[in-house]
Specification:
Elements (H helix, E strand, L loop, with lengths): L1 H21 L5 E14 L6 E14 L7 E12 L7 E14 L3 E12 L2 E12 L5 E10 L1 E3 L2 E3 L3 E10 L5 E12 L2 E15 L3 E10 L4 E14 L2 E10 L17 E13 L2 E11 L5 E14 L2 E12 L3 E12 L4 E13 L7 E13 L4 E11 L7 E10 L1
Antiparallel strand pairs: 1-2, 1-24, 2-3, 3-4, 4-5, 5-6, 6-7, 7-10, 8-9, 10-11, 11-12, 12-13, 13-14, 14-15, 15-16, 16-17, 17-18, 18-19, 19-20, 20-21, 21-22, 22-23, 23-24
Length: about 400
């Protein structure tokens, strides 16, 4: 009864707010309600579980005459049908956004996701984007981090702040530098400098790079550099280098553990042969430091025998450190465009963890579909069965009903 009462209260309040806002002719309210039924097996004892969830996203725009002020919100309520208990409520974002303040700044206040090249967080705080002050713009963020656990939102004593400077108005060029600091209580937990770069030229080449430097550990904890080349409109060649050196918060016990640097070289080609056939191939060289290396080869194609049907077949092979792998993925999609679409597939992996054990297999069989009742309402379902060393049958799925308003 308590759950029913709370649900009814939420529905009444939502309907009331929706009706009041709608009375203002200029205001635009939009969003999506997604009601989901989820079933799965418990990872510990294998018992069947079921949950029902409500995901609600709301946007209120054009609150003022100039259309600068808006409010955005997104949250979830999840209830464990089998075990009962309290409703797991999560508010992912809820902020007020005002654009073009004095024609110089965009201000966002409330719960929001902030992302700088030096770091990112979900926080209760402020983000200000200072613009129209020359060829360089500035972004400033700060607030208390939002942390979620198994049973909902956790009490947070983590605060973070950051600043970024970025180029504005330079054609075909994106570049920024940023600084991000995290406090745990009054202790400095992270101190990161970052940068990102993207350059387009000759209408056929794209260069990009990202890097983060941990000032407390005095090491680059992440770096990426790559180039994409388009010799023709239907061919893309990619070459990338990536490295990662794990660093932890200074207040964490893991910060005293020794870790290895991971490096990866990537070569890839994607080719649209005709309107009905796409080919792809790739090679990854993985370096786990201290002599641990592996090579991964990938190949696949997408075949479209008709406008409504797509078939995909992919294969990858891995040799080296950590074990060998042969994997296959096959899927098919069909859509009527107007009303419904359906898809099904199989993932099949054969792997050897080390030289002392034989081959093991893991298989996933899945099927999915979506039906569009009208412009605003649709429903979808996905069911999969996992068969591997841990499960002879592991059926799980999700049924959703979505309403757009």
């Amino acid at each position: 009864m308590r759950l029913l009462s709370r649900c009814l209260s939420v529905l009444v309040i939502t309907f009331f707010l929706f009706s009041v806002v709608r009375m203002a002719a200029a205001v635009e309210v939009s969003g999506r309600s997604s009601t989901q039924y989820i079933w799965f097996n418990d990872i510990v004892d294998g018992s069947s579980q079921a949950e029902v969830g409500e995901y609600l996203r709301v946007g209120i725009d054009k609150i003022d005459e100039a259309g600068n002020f808006s409010i955005k919100a997104y949250g979830r309520a999840l209830y464990d049908i089998k075990n009962g208990g309290a409703v797991d409520e999560r508010l992912y974002y809820f902020f007020a956004d005002y654009k073009n303040l004095l024609d110089k700044a965009d201000i966002r206040v409330g719960r929001q996701f902030v992302n700088l090249s030096a770091g990112s967080a979900l926080m209760d705080g402020v983000q200000a984007d200072i613009k129209n002050v020359g060829p360089v713009g500035f972004t400033v963020v700060g607030g208390r981090d939002v942390l979620f656990g198994e049973t909902g939102q956790l009490s947070s004593h983590v605060y973070s702040a950051g600043v970024a400077a970025y180029l504005r108005g330079v054609k075909n060029t994106d570049f920024d530098v940023s600084y991000y600091r995290v406090y745990d209580y009054s202790e400095i937990a992270r101190d990161i400098a970052g940068a990102s770069f993207r350059q387009y030229f000759l209408d056929s080449i794209q260069l990009y790079a990202n890097a983060r430097y941990d000032l407390t550990a005095e090491v680059f904890n992440e770096a990426l550099a790559g180039v994409k080349y388009f010799p023709t409109l239907n061919l893309m060649l990619t070459a990338e280098y990536f490295e990662s050196y794990p660093t932890f918060d200074t207040v964490s016990i893991y910060s005293v553990f020794a870790v290895d640097k991971y490096k990866e070289d990537v070569l890839r080609a994607d080719y649209t042969v005709t309107s009905w056939l796409d080919l792809s191939a790739g090679y990854n060289h993985e370096d786990f430091d201290e002599g641990g290396r592996a090579d991964v080869y990938e190949i696949g194609f997408k075949f479209r025998p008709s406008l409504r049907t797509t078939v995909g077949v992919f294969h990858d092979t891995r040799y080296g450190y950590g074990g060998n792998l042969d994997g296959y993925k096959v899927y098919a999609e069909y859509t009527t465009f107007a009303k419904w679409k359906a898809a099904a597939g199989i993932d099949y992996d054969v792997f050897a963890r080390d030289d002392m054990t034989g081959n093991e297999t893991a298989r996933k069989y899945w099927a999915a579909g979506r039906y569009q009742f009208n412009k605003n309402m649709s429903s979808s379902v996905r069911v999969e069965d996992n068969v591997n060393i841990n499960y002879s049958k592991d059926i799980q799925g999700r049924l959703t009903f979505d309403y757009d308003f």
